Fold:
Amino acid sequence: MPDSREKIDIRTNELLLLAQEDVYRSTDRMFVKLMIFQWVFGIFIAWIVSPKAWVGAISSIHIHVWAAIFLGGAILLLPILLGIFKSGRTYTRHLIAVAQMLYCGLLIHLTEGRIETHFQIFGCLAFLSFYRDWRVLITATVVTTLDHWLRGTYWPLSIFGVLTASPYRWMEHAGWVIFEDIILIRTCIRGFFEMKKIAQDKAELESTYQQLRKAMDDVQSTNAQLVQSEKMKALYEMQKEFTSMVSHELRTPLASIKMAIDLITQEVAGGINSEQKDILNRAKQESDRLKRLIDDILDLTKIEAGKMQMNFLRDDIHRVISQVVEAQKDVAQSRGLYLKTEFGPKVPFIDFDSDRMVQVLNNLINNAFKFTKRGGVVIKTQDKSLEGHVLISVIDTGKGIAEKDLPKLFQKFQQIESAQENEEGGTGLGLAISKEIIARHGGKIWVESKLGEGATFNFILPIQERRVVS
Amino acid sequence: MLRNICIALIGIVWVLSVGFGISKLYNYEYKSGPVGHVAKQWPSGSIIQPHKNLFQLVMVVHPQCPCTRATIGELELIMAKSQGQVEATVLFIKLRGFDQQWVKTDLYTAVRRIPGVNAIIDVGGAEARVFGGTTSGQTFLYNAQGQLVFMGGITASRGHSGDNVGRSTIVALINNQPVSVHSTPFFGCPLMNETRVGIAQKRIL
Structure:
C-alpha cells in the first residue's frame, strides 16, 4: 500500500492529466470556432477584394473566391472534424497547428500579400500557446520554417520578390517566429507548472478532506452507537420496571392463595381427608416455589438495576453461618442428611450484609440438599488473611456436577441436566443472585466438582474494612 | 489495424487535396501574361506627349482587374522613389459596351491620387495596342531618349504586393543604377478577349 505522500503524488498526476486534457479539449473547441470563422472570413475577404477575374469584357468568379471556398475548406475541414470528434488527442492539436500555418499563407494570398496579414502568423502562434503544450508551437514553426526554407532556396521570387536571395534569408524570417516561440514556450512551460501546482494543492486538499470525512464518519458512527446504546438502556429499564411491577402484582394474590391453602390444611374451615391434604400440600409446595421465583426475579432486577441496598457491618461471619445452619438443621434431618460447620481458627471479623449473606448461604445449602441423597453438607471457613480474604466453602456429598456444566452454573435461568431431572426443581436464579451478592461484597464465588464426587461451592469475602457503605 | 489504415488514408487524402489546391493557386498566381508587339522606341502614333528630359512610364490597366490593385500600390512606391525623374501614364482600357463609370473604379481613383501620374481612359484599348500592352499591370519604361529600358510586371506574383524585381529594376534605372534584368513576368487580367488567341505566347522570365 502506498503511503500518504505517494497517494498524493499519484492523485496529483491524475489531476494534472485531467487538467491538461481539459485544456486540450477546450482549446480544440476554441480552434474549431476560430477555423470556421477563418473559413467564412476568408471567403468574405476574397469576395470583397477580388470578386471577379476579367478577360477583356468577360468576367468570371475570381480564382481567389474558389480558393477561399475549396482550398480553405480542404485545409480546415479535417482539423475542424478532428476538433469536434477527436478532441483532446495529440494528433488533433498538431494537425490544427499545421492547418493554421497553411491557412495563414492562404489568407496572405487572398489579401494580396498585405504585410498586415502576415501578422496573423504571430497571432496564430499565440493562440496555439493556449494548449500549454510547447510541442504544438514547434510543429507550427517547422511548417513555416520549412516553407520559407524551400521557397527561399529554390524559388526566392515567390517569397522575397527577388530573383536571387541570400541562401540564409529564410533564417531571418524563421528567426522572428522562433523569437516569439521562445516567449510562448516559456509561457507554456510556466503554465504547465502552474497546472501541476494547482493539481498538487487540489490532491492535498482532497486528502485532507478525506481524512476529515473519515473522522466525521467515525464521530457519526460513535453518535449512532451512543443513541443505540441509549435506546437499549431505555428498553432495558422498561423491561426491568415491567418485571418488577409484574412480580409485585403476583406476590399479593400468591400470599392470599398460600394463606387459604394453610387455613384449609389446618382444617380451620372444616375437616379434609388425607387425599385432599396431599393435593393441598403439593399446591403449597408449588406456591412456595412460585414465591421463591418471584423473590429471585425481584432480587435479580434490583441487583442489575443497582437498586439493591447493601448494609455492610463488621461482624463475625461464624455467627451468621451458625444461625443459618441452625435454621436449616430440621430440613437436613427431614432429608436424612447431616449439616455441620467446620470453622477455621482466628477468622477475623469482616464487613458484610448479614441478610444477604444469609440469602447466599441458604441458596448454597438448599442447592446442596437438593442434589445430596446420602451423607450431608459441611460449611467450612478458612482464614486467608495473607491473601486478604476469608474463604467459606459449602461442601456436599451429592452426585456432583459434570465438568461441561460448570460454566453454566452461575448464569441466569440456567439449569444443568441433573437439576432438570430433580423433582424439587428450582428457579435457575439462585446461584446467579448469589454470584451478584458476593460480587457486591467485593468477593468471588466458584465451584469445584466432579461427577459422583460431590460438589464444593467456595466464596471469598475481603477482610479489608469497607469505607463506603452503599 | 483497419482504423490505422483509415487514419493514414484520410491523412494522405488531406495532404494531396491541400497540395493540389496550393499548386493550382500558385500556378494561377505565377502565370505570366502573353507578350505582344512591344514598341522598342517611343511610338510615334501615341497620343501621349513625352517630356524630353524625363523617363516615361506607361502602364496598361484593366479597370475592373482586382489583381492590379497591388500593382498600383507598387507604382505609388516607384513614384515616391523616383524623385521627379519619371513621368507616368496609366491607360485605363474602356471596352465597347461599357460606360465611363465602368472605368472609374477604385483603381482609377487610386491612380488619380498619385502625384506625377496621369490617368487616361483608353477607349477601345487603341493606345495600349500602340505600346503592345496585353495584360493589366504590364508596365513600360522609356528613357529620355525614347528607348524601351524595361517591360514587365511590378509585382512578385498576381496581385501580390511586396518586394519584387520589377519595382526594384525601375527604381534602379531611374536612378541610373545597374540592373540585371530589363523585363519581368507580368500577371493580371488580359485586356481584351482576342489577346488570348491573337498574340504569340512568349514568356519572359
